[in-house]
Specification:
Length: about 200
């Protein structure tokens, strides 16, 4: 009886090992590729549930929080990322990184002039207060979305390196400021520079 129990437990351990190796959070090249595809798809549709699942980014995290409360921010996210294209260049499982080539519209001027215009009209305190004002958001963010639609594509791809970590159920990509700026076509960096 003891031999039977020991054999059954051994089989269970082996089966569990195979299941855990093939899980979505295992650090394999296939899972990294699937994670990059899921994260960039979520960026393009600005799906905050999927972004929260696959992306670790301080700036994008703030925008996602607002997008969950205000549809204007979700529409802004879609406008910023809908022309984002990417290609995986290299996956380094030892360093736990993936290098991706990205292109988007050149949004740095659009974002910079938008932020500068707002800062001429409002104090920082007033701007923060208006982030929950639906009428203000409707007018101002709709204007920015229109300007983004008119922006031209950036012909030069940029290479970014994202960290890969194991989340609870899947792999997660870490975006630093350089990566955030590259995927947003320069928009996030331009806004930060204008506010600083």
């Amino acid at each position: 009886m003891k031999k039977f129990i020991a054999a059954a437990l051994s089989v269970l351990v082996i089966l569990f090992s195979f299941c855990s190796c093939s899980s979505a959070r295992a650090l394999t090249e296939e899972n990294v590729t699937k994670t990059v595809d899921a994260a960039f798809s979520a960026l393009k549709s600005f799906d905050t549930d999927e972004l929260n699942k696959y992306v670790d980014s301080s700036t994008l995290g703030i925008i996602m929080d607002y997008a969950e409360k205000h549809d204007q921010f979700r529409k802004l996210g879609v406008a910023i990322f809908e022309n984002l294209n990417y290609e995986i260049i290299d996956t380094d499982l030892n360093a736990k990184t993936v290098t991706v080539s990205v292109t988007n519209k050149d949004l740095s001027y659009t974002a910079s002039s938008f932020a500068s215009s707002l800062l001429e009209k409002y104090s920082t305190f007033e701007l923060l207060k208006n982030l929950n004002n639906e009428l203000w958001l409707n007018g101002n963010l709709a204007d920015l979305v229109e300007k983004i639609a008119d922006a031209v594509p950036n012909p030069e791809p940029l290479e970014i390196t994202l960290t890969v970590t194991q989340g609870k159920k899947n792999l997660v990509l870490g975006f630093d400021e350089t990566a955030e700026n590259a995927v947003s076509g320069g928009a996030l960096g331009a806004i930060k520079d204008a506010i600083a």
